[in-house]
Design goal:
By secondary structure, the chain is mainly alpha-helical. 44% of the residues lie in helices and 5% in strands.
């Protein structure tokens, strides 16, 4: 999915159905680099709550800018909010 998101400006990656500590290493590295504006937070609620999905987000060491983009900035820009 990362390759498709890189190639196409209107393709984004979301994280629904995964807890933060289960994100693949490749996704985390993409989020920290070229993909910082291309990844959106998702939960797959009601199967996974936001609290459960984010419980170990700090372990990814994304930094403030990337965390802000991931949790809200990218969605705000994409959906014009």
């Amino acid at each position: 999915m990362i390759a498709v998101a890189d190639k196409h400006p209107n393709v984004y990656v979301d994280t629904s159905a995964y807890a933060a500590h289960r994100y693949p290493t490749e996704l985390v590295e993409y989020m920290k680099g070229l993909g910082k504006t291309k990844v959106l937070f998702g939960t797959n609620y009601p199967m996974m709550t936001a609290a459960r999905a984010l419980a170990r987000l700090d372990e990814l060491d994304l930094g403030d800018e990337v965390t802000g983009l991931f949790l809200r900035g990218n969605a705000r820009r994409l959906f014009g909010l």
